[in-house]
Every structure is written in structure tokens, then in C-alpha cells.
Amino acid sequence: MFQGFLAQGLSRTSAGLGSVIIDSQPLTVALLAALLFGETIGPLGALGLATGVLGLCLLEVPEDTLFSLLRFEWLSAPSEVSQSLSSLNPGGLWESGEWWMLLAAQSMAVGTVMVRWVSKYVDPVVATGWHMLLGGIPLLLLSVSAHEPAVSGHFSDLDSHDFLALLYTSVFGCAVSYGVFFYNASRGNLTKLSSLTFLTPMFAAFFGYLYLDETLTQIQLGGAAVTLVGIYLVNFRSLADSLASTKDEL
């Protein structure tokens, strides 16, 4: 569900707002982990989650949109905002990329929490392989019904770069990354682990600067700093505990 919803969202949404939505999943993970496993992060951790989301907004939402929100223009002309949103998504809710991104984020959050139960019966790396295989079947069937080139026989529409991109995404973007993530999710604190996904847009911005000559504004650089502060606050207690444990051993 995560991969399918994400693909739909990416084709319909703006990069900035969509990325903020997809990377805000630690909020849902924190709520579910508290309800189901009794995990607590305390006021400082909650502040860290909110700070992380703020950093994401500064990193990814276009500056004109940010300034418009800060000036509360949407309050002075709510009808214009409503008309603007309607024009962006004339097909309704299911044509909204942001809605698909929200579904993707919630799916990933639920999967992160569920791995705790799954890992009681099977190795988390094995579980990762199975959920990709089983989850890929309906996506493959949907692709066949939609006559996608990669599965309908029109391979001439795909060049070598397309195949290399697909191979990289499959191996490193899915198998390796999800295997490592779910392995740690089966053992550590779910909220603190998921907070590390706040780093995703930072790496994207860094490599965009490095390889695509993209520039970072002062607001984006500030957003990166705020995001790091948020991650630190979420993980502050575990760091303090580690230092205390080391001190006791010494």
C-alpha cells in the first residue's frame, strides 16, 4: 500500500508539500507506539517531533507558500483559498496528490508498528522480503491492467537508464533500506527510529546540490538545522541513558 500510494502521490502533488506529508509519519508512529506498546517520549520528545515537522516545512514548502501562511492570508480570504484548492484538484479528493501522500505515510507508519508482532514469528529481514513479494503482486496486476510498458511487453519504451534506475530502486531503495529499517524497528524504540526519516529530505537536498547544481536558500538551510535539533530532542533521553550507562561501567 505504501509503494502504491506513494507512486500515485508523486504523480499528482507538488514536491514540497507532498514530501512534508510523507515524511511526517513519525507523528503517527509515536501515537500508535504509545497506544499499543506504551512507549513514552516525554514532553521533550514531543517537542522534538513538532520541531522536526517545522524543519521539514522550512526545507520543502516553497517560500511564497510559507510567507502566505505566516501572513495568515488564508484567514482573510478563505473562499479564494478554497477555490484555489479546487482548481488544483478538479477531480476531487482522489485526484489530490497530498491525499495519496497522506495515505502512504499512514500505511508506512502502520507497517512500522506491525513489524513488532511479525518479528515474534519470523526474522524481520525475511518478513521484509515476504511483504515486498506479497505486496508486489497486486501492484503488478494493477500495472498489467493499466498497460504499463514494463509489464505489457513494450520494452522498447524503456531505455538502459530506466532499467538501471529500476534496479537501483529495487535493491537499495527497497530491499536494503527496508530490511535495515524493519530489522531495527523490531528491536528499538519505534518513535525514535522513525524520527530519523526526518533526515530523508536533508539527504535529497544535499545530493541535489551536489549532483544537480540545485541551490539551497537560507530558509532551507535553517530548516535543515531545525530538523537536526528536532531529531536530537526526540533521541535525547536515549543518548543520556547511554552516557549514564557508560559512566557506570567506567
Automatic annotation (TrEMBL):
It is found in: Membrane. InterPro entries: AA-Vitamin_Transporters, EamA_dom, EmrE-like. Keywords: Membrane, Transmembrane, Transmembrane helix. It is a multi-pass membrane protein. The keyword Membrane applies. Residues 3-59, 96-235 form the EamA domain. Pfam families: EamA (PF00892). The chain crosses the membrane at residues 15-37, 44-61, 99-118, 125-143, 163-183, 195-212, 218-236. One of its GO terms (cellular component) is membrane. Belongs to the drug/metabolite transporter (DMT) superfamily. Plant drug/metabolite exporter (P-DME) (TC 2.A.7.4) family. This is EamA domain-containing protein. The lineage of its organism: Eukaryota, Viridiplantae, Streptophyta, Klebsormidiophyceae, Klebsormidiales.
